[in-house]
């Protein structure tokens, strides 16, 4: 299965070889040579899985993993340790730190691909099971309808001009329209022929760009600021 990966390793030769092998296996791979750049890339790209070395200068793999786990959006992100530290005690330490898989160098690249595929399949199953679970769909639909009714009564719908210049991508605009229409992530994924994970990424980016933290806040913000007109369709 395809996926977006982030590889963090300070060895250029190994980093390039692993990136090439993973890309030949159908994955999109971003790379970083240190943990600090890796964390920045993770927040920018929102990868589906991270592969990281342990022994890196300044910030090692354990510190990097802790920084990831301290960020709510990466709490359950699969992380694979790829390292020369292969003693049993090292593996135990890695799993205790919260990694999902531990592969010692030298390694068979086919094993790495198998680990990545397995973790992504498990993550996809968990996401599909949990998607929208935190929302009471009926309550959310009622809240969105109330927001639209209140703004309609006030005559408060500005024209859809995106005057705030939020720099939304076409796909983010499409997702926003469907959120305003009251659709959940699974429904949006089906409508746009994409994955639930990708919809989650777009919704997360919309929260960040609009400074909102919930779907109802996002809907109100979009309608009040003319980002979307009520009833718009693709």
TrEMBL record:
<dbReference type="Pfam" id="PF00072">
    <property type="entry name" value="Response_reg"/>
</dbReference>
<dbReference type="GO" id="GO:0000156">
    <property type="term" value="F:phosphorelay response regulator activity"/>
</dbReference>
<feature type="modified residue" description="4-aspartylphosphate">
    <location>
        <position position="53"/>
    </location>
</feature>
<dbReference type="InterPro" id="IPR000792">
    <property type="entry name" value="Tscrpt_reg_LuxR_C"/>
</dbReference>
<protein>
    <submittedName>
        <fullName>Response regulator transcription factor</fullName>
    </submittedName>
</protein>
<feature type="domain" description="Response regulatory">
    <location>
        <begin position="4"/>
        <end position="120"/>
    </location>
</feature>
<keyword id="KW-0804">Transcription</keyword>
<keyword id="KW-0805">Transcription regulation</keyword>
<dbReference type="GO" id="GO:0006355">
    <property type="term" value="P:regulation of DNA-templated transcription"/>
</dbReference>
<dbReference type="Pfam" id="PF00196">
    <property type="entry name" value="GerE"/>
</dbReference>
<keyword id="KW-0597">Phosphoprotein</keyword>
<dbReference type="InterPro" id="IPR001789">
    <property type="entry name" value="Sig_transdc_resp-reg_receiver"/>
</dbReference>
<dbReference type="InterPro" id="IPR011006">
    <property type="entry name" value="CheY-like_superfamily"/>
</dbReference>
<dbReference type="GO" id="GO:0005829">
    <property type="term" value="C:cytosol"/>
</dbReference>
<feature type="domain" description="HTH luxR-type">
    <location>
        <begin position="161"/>
        <end position="226"/>
    </location>
</feature>
<dbReference type="InterPro" id="IPR036388">
    <property type="entry name" value="WH-like_DNA-bd_sf"/>
</dbReference>
<keyword id="KW-0238">DNA-binding</keyword>
<dbReference type="InterPro" id="IPR039420">
    <property type="entry name" value="WalR-like"/>
</dbReference>
<dbReference type="InterPro" id="IPR016032">
    <property type="entry name" value="Sig_transdc_resp-reg_C-effctor"/>
</dbReference>
<dbReference type="GO" id="GO:0032993">
    <property type="term" value="C:protein-DNA complex"/>
</dbReference>
<dbReference type="GO" id="GO:0000976">
    <property type="term" value="F:transcription cis-regulatory region binding"/>
</dbReference>
């Amino acid at each position: 299965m395809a996926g977006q990966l982030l590889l963090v390793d300070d060895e250029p030769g190994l980093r390039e070889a692993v990136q090439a092998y993973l890309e030949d296996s159908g994955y999109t791979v971003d790379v970083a040579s240190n943990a600090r750049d890796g964390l920045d890339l993770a927040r920018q790209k929102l990868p589906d899985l991270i592969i990281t070395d342990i022994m890196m200068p300044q910030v090692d793999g354990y510190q990097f993993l802790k920084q990831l786990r301290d960020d709510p959006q990466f709490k359950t992100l699969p992380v694979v340790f790829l390292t020369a530290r292969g003693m049993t005690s090292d593996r135990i330490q890695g799993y205790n730190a919260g990694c999902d898989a531990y592969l010692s160098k030298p390694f068979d690249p086919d094993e790495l691909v198998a680990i990545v595929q397995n973790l992504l399949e498990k993550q996809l199953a968990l996401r599909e099971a949990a998607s929208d679970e935190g929302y009471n769909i009926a309550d959310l639909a009622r809240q969105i309808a109330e927001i639209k009714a209140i703004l309609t009564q006030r005559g408060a719908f500005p024209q859809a001009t995106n005057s705030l210049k939020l720099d939304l991508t076409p796909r983010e605009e499409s997702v926003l329209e469907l959120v305003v229409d009251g659709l959940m992530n699974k429904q949006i994924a089906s409508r746009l022929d994409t994955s639930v994970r990708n919809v989650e990424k777009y919704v997360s980016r919309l929260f960040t760009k609009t400074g909102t933290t919930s779907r109802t806040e996002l809907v109100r913000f979009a309608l009040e600021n003319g980002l979307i007109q009520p009833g718009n369709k693709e």
